[in-house]
Design brief:
The complex is a heterodimer of chains A (285) and B (333). Helix content of chain A is 73%, strand content 0%. Chain A has helices spanning 11-39, 43-47, 62-69, 71-103, 110-121, 126-138, 145-170, 174-181, 186-214, 218-223, 233-242, 249-269, 271-279. Classes of the chains: A mainly alpha (285), B mainly alpha (333). Chain A: It is found in: Cell membrane.
Chain lengths: 285, 333
């Protein structure tokens, strides 16, 4: 292990290390601690200049109440689930099939197709903006959640194919060959042999996609600018803060924490899947 | 091989490929096409060439954009002021080297945007060494440190828009940094000042990115074989030497992924700028291509020029995408 394990250190170094970890952690979390404190302050306290590292005085949930009772913000918050869940399901399922097709068969153009999937992941959203916007207008889904579902489903499918193809490629091919020799057809092989083996990868992927899509801001601004019940929570928050609650710091603070909550909860509950998903491919050759 | 075997991969691939190609790959060409035109985003004609006014009252048709072909005009517009601005910047620096204290010249928005993109490209990747430092700092195995690692990491799952709000508050001139601002004489804080805004936004961008790089490196450190480290230790390699000779080379795959993701992230920066400064203060002082394009297209209704900005951004990114894909394909062989 590098650096040397703590157990081998001198006792003083160990104590020093523990203290420094706590200090660094507090500094690291400082912006979040400050925003958390602000979320429990009254508008009065914040506007009279108490925007530093102060305790809420009086303690107030005014900011949360304002955010919760704002219909537009709440609509976008609830809508986020209605967008994120189908997008996650669509992209993970399509990509599992595609990843299998790309990794366990040999055919011409295979690498090229995979490369396009991977490359597509990295294109700037802006190069897609006008055509995708036009497409949703033609389809009559502009300013509805369907526009976001349609686009995010496609875009995330690209990332999922990248992920799934690399995961399935690592699975031993012997099982598949054996099943084929025994007369299983191609769909049965996928359904009975491959699918059970990739369930852990699918769940890791689902956690990641949930977070990525939940956090989207750009596409809500582009595809659902006038529809609070169609856009996602970060854009909903932006709307109220840049609009009616301009300079209402406690609403900004409380709203930010509310928007952050679902992915943060998800991360702390499903940490293992999350990190497994994120680091796949980062440490193999 | 049987027909079923030859057909199967295409069937498995088809739904994802058709969906992805039609919404993510095909539109790229659409933007190229629009970039050679002038279009306000609201003028349409019928697909058969008639104008909308010519339609009978109860008649409808498939509407297509009514765009004017302008060739490379939009691109010329983008680079129009580049020579002039380059001259001014050169003049500024020659002044600086001559020991004078010249004023930073007035530049066109396009030049400012490109310079800001360069600042992002250069400074944003500093998240990588910082993330590595965090990973080395925290690479221990006790239970409490494992909990600490997730506290260090979780800013990564925050929405960039939320990070933007958090730092907007953090940077507020009468916020927690007020004392420091007083000391430095920074009356308008960080993001309220034309020369500092971009740097302030980049630092906010580091926050989740450092967390990401840290986690990539922690996974990389775990994957290094302990025997190798022990062997190097027996050979007398310690601390820096061990890090430089053994650990860093072993971490190359992690570094590569961090580099790609961070570089692409630097060029993609939209959310933070939009939330924290909307490109300002003033015209374009903290703007970047990704955001300026959005503004030009949807607010100034200059779709052709917006598409041109997107194409320029895309071509810059294509360099990095190509490097990544080449490396990946080489690994396959």
């Amino acid at each position: 292990m590098y650096p040397a394990p703590m157990e081998t250190w001198k006792p003083q170094s160990r104590t020093l290390y523990k203290i420094s970890v706590i200090v660094v952690l507090l500094l690291w979390l400082l912006p979040l601690i400050i925003i958390m404190l602000a979320s429990f302050m009254t508008a009065d306290q914040l506007n009279t200049g108490g925007r530093g590292l102060n305790l809420p005085n009086p303690f107030s949930i005014e900011g949360y109440r304002t955010a919760f009772t704002n219909q537009d913000f709440m609509a976008s918050f609830m809508n986020s689930f209605l967008v994120v869940i189908p997008v996650t399901a669509i992209s993970v399922c399509l990509a599992t099939m595609a990843g299998y097709g790309l990794s366990k068969y040999r055919f011409r153009g295979q690498i090229l197709i995979f490369a396009i999937f991977v490359g597509g992941n990295f294109v700037p959203f802006q190069i897609l903006m006008v055509p995708v916007l036009r497409l949703t207008q033609d389809l009559g889904i502009y300013n509805t959640r369907w526009a976001l579902i349609l686009f995010h489903g496609a875009f995330q499918t690209g990332f999922c194919v990248f992920f799934m193809r690399n995961f399935i490629a690592q699975l031993p091919s012997e099982l598949i060959e054996a099943a084929r020799v025994e007369g299983a057809n191609e769909w049965q092989i996928f359904r009975r042999i491959v699918l059970p083996l990739v369930v852990p990868a699918m769940s890791a992927l689902a956690v990641l996609i949930f977070t990525f899509v939940w956090n989207d801001f750009f596409w809500s601004l582009v595809l659902t600018p006038a529809s609070p019940e169609g856009m996602l929570a970060p854009a909903g928050l932006n709307n109220i803060i840049k609009g009616r609650f301009y300079n209402a710091w406690n609403v900004l603070a409380a709203g930010s924490l509310l928007v952050a909550l679902p992915p943060v909860l998800m991360f702390f509950v499903l940490q293992k899947q999350f990190i497994a998903g994120l680091t796949l491919g980062a440490n193999k050759g | 091989m049987s027909r079923a075997y030859r057909l199967a991969p295409w069937l498995f691939l088809a739904p994802a490929a058709i969906y992805f190609f039609s919404l993510v790959i095909y539109p790229i060409f659409g933007s190229f096409w629009v970039s050679f035109h002038d279009w306000d985003g609201t003028t349409f004609q019928c697909s058969d060439g008639r104008t909308l006014q010519e339609l009978a009252e109860d008649e409808s048709c498939r509407r297509v954009p009514l765009m004017t072909w302008v060739g490379l005009e939009n691109y010329e517009r983008f680079f129009d002021k580049t020579p002039r601005d380059a001259g001014r910047i050169a003049e500024y620096w020659s002044g600086v080297f001559a020991g004078e204290s010249p004023r930073w010249p007035r530049l066109s928005v396009e030049t400012k945007v490109v310079l800001n993109n360069i600042k992002w490209l250069v400074l944003f990747p500093l998240a990588i060494p910082i993330g590595l430092a965090f990973a080395l700092f925290l690479n221990q195995t006790s239970v409490w440190i494992r909990a600490t690692k997730s506290m260090f990491f979780f800013p990564f799952v925050l929405s960039p828009a939320v990070i933007g709000f958090v730092f907007q508050y953090f940077y507020d001139p009468s916020g927690p940094l007020e004392g420091i601002y007083d000391l430095l004489g920074w009356d308008s804080g960080v993001i309220g000042d034309q020369t500092r805004a971009t740097y302030g936004i980049i630092v906010a961008g580091w926050y989740p990115q450092i967390a990401y790089c840290m986690i990539i490196y922690l996974a990389g450190l775990t994957a290094i074989e302990p025997e190798q480290i022990e062997a190097a230790r027996l050979d007398g390699a310690r601390r820096w030497k061990l890090l430089r000779r053994i650990i860093l080379p072993q971490l190359w795959p992690a570094t590569f992924v961090a580099l790609v993701v961070t570089t692409i992230g630097a060029l993609r920066s939209f959310d933070l700028v939009q939330v924290m400064t909307i490109g300002g203060p003033g015209r374009g002082s903290s703007d970047v291509l990704a955001r300026y394009m959005y503004q030009k297209t949807l607010f100034d209704q200059d779709y052709g020029y917006g598409a041109t900005l997107a194409v320029i951004l895309f071509l810059i990114m294509l360099v990095f995408i190509a490097v990544f894909i080449r490396q990946m394909v080489q690994q396959e062989d």
